[in-house]
Design goal:
Blueprint: E1 6-9, H1 17-28, E2 33-35, E3 42-46, H2 50-60, E4 69-71, H3 87-96, E5 101-106, H4 113-116, E6 121-125, H5 130-139, E7 143-144, H6 159-166, E8 172-175, E9 186-189, E10 202-205, H7 211-218, E11 222-223, E12 252-257, H8 260-270, E13 275-279, E14 291-293, H9 300-316, E15 321-325, H10 333-343, E16 348-350
Parallel strand pairs: 1-8, 2-8, 4-6, 5-9, 10-11, 12-15, 12-16, 13-14, 13-15
Antiparallel strand pairs: 2-3, 3-7, 4-7, 5-6, 9-10
This protein binds adenosine monophosphate (AMP) and magnesium ion.
Length: 353
């Protein structure tokens, strides 16, 4: 499926207006393109065109039961995609859109099965990145846009990551700034109701809009088991994406949970050639093991920006094992933990002594 991939500069709405219009045209005509968003780069195609979404799945090598998020650029574009828009959804959009929050509701017939992965629901988000919104506007259709990586590899946070994974597989890659957030959007389902018809919100994937922020608007929000634990083979996942081995580099990743003294002692006693430490700023310097910091212990937003880029870098450096100092799980830290524990295939060691 070797294609000619056009690299289009898109840093600035005015200066790069021509390239943004061209990207819109490519997408409107059924092509696929990697575009910047504030979370990670997305691989975009017309969400209402099954042929375009099939191209996305093929380029990524993504299983087709894993539904796609539909991106819009104005709240008014939401209603045609869903069966109904409850007040809870509108209250969330008012507070956190445009931004890194995806909301799942019952889908309208307009949304093809290929976009919803065969589910009766649809995930919708309005991104904050102005280039992303301009591309959607230029395309004139809502865009399905999963992360612009090959399925299973770490998500792309720079346009170069997209080029590494997708050159020759997509019609265009927009060359734009590095992603501000660095991890994928928060995914919240508003599809369940109790017997009195009240919505039971459920967090399916943590992101930069935190559980605490969702609760500030909605009150109670349940956390799906798949956020912190492994979904067993054969078990039904509410968010199909959560059941796949995900975000993983080639190296074997392990999370080590404990303080700096315990982390250092483990590396000293159990380290082997080929190991790399992925640690907090505060853990440095580390003796006898090459190390990269992924941010300060309390700097969850900084960690989120670093993790995928660092996992790719450690692969390039041919790390055999990556020993990660386990992040805290509050605020945006929950999103960082959720991604790293998947990269680690759920290998977590609790340090003692
Ligand atoms: P990505 O497109 O790579 O950011 O992944 C999208 C995530 O959203 C995956 O984990 C999907 O399983 C989840 N998702 C998208 N649409 C739905 C939906 N209708 N119901 C449940 N989960 C969804
Ligand atoms: Mg992805």
């Amino acid at each position: 499926m070797e294609k000619e991939t056009r690299l289009l500069r898109a840093y600035d709405l005015q200066e790069d207006a021509e390239n943004i219009a061209l990207a819109g045209k490519i997408l409107r005509e059924g092509g696929i393109a990697a575009i910047p968003t504030e979370t990670v780069y997305g691989l975009a195609g017309n969400a209402l065109d099954p042929a375009a979404t099939r191209k996305i799945y093929a380029a990524k090598g993504r299983p087709s039961d894993n539904p796609l998020i539909v991106h819009i650029q104005a709240v008014g574009e939401w209603a045609p995609l869903v069966r109904e828009l409850p007040e809870e959804a509108l209250a969330l959009a008012k507070e956190y859109w445009p931004g890194p929050l995806t909301i799942i509701l019952g889908k309208s017939p307009l949304v093809p099965e290929s976009t919803s992965g065969g589910l009766p629901t649809v995930a919708v988000r309005m991104p904050e990145n102005p280039i992303a919104r301009a591309v959607i506007r230029a395309a004139g259709v809502p865009l399905a846009a999963p992360s612009a990586n090959r399925s299973g590899s770490p998500s792309p946070t720079t346009w170069q990551h997209c080029a590494d994974d997708l050159m020759g597989r997509v019609d265009a890659i927009l060359q734009s700034a590095d992603c501000r957030v660095g991890v994928e959007s928060t995914v919240l389902s508003l599809c369940q109701r109790d017997k009195d018809g009240r919505i039971l919100p459920r967090l399916l994937r943590p992101g930069a809009v935190t559980l605490e922020q969702l609760r500030a608007v909605l009150g109670e929000v349940a956390v799906d088991r798949g956020v912190l634990e492994q979904i067993e083979a054969g078990e039904k996942a509410l968010s199909p994406g959560m059941k796949y081995k995900h975000y993983a580099p080639a190296a074997e990743v392990t999370l080590l949970e404990g303080d700096t003294r315990q982390y250092r002692a483990y590396l000293r006693e159990r380290g082997r050639p080929g190991d790399w430490a992925m640690c907090f700023e505060e853990d440095l310097p580390l003796e006898g093991i090459p190390a990269r910091s992924y941010g300060g212990r309390e700097d969850h937003a900084g960690q989120a920006r670093q993790i995928f880029q660092l996992l790719r870098e450690l692969d390039r450096l041919e790390a055999k094992r990556i020993l990660v100092h386990c992040p805290q799980k509050d605020g945006v830290g929950l999103a960082v933990y959720n991604r790293l524990v998947r990269a680690a295939a759920f290998r977590v060691v609790e340090l003692e002594g």
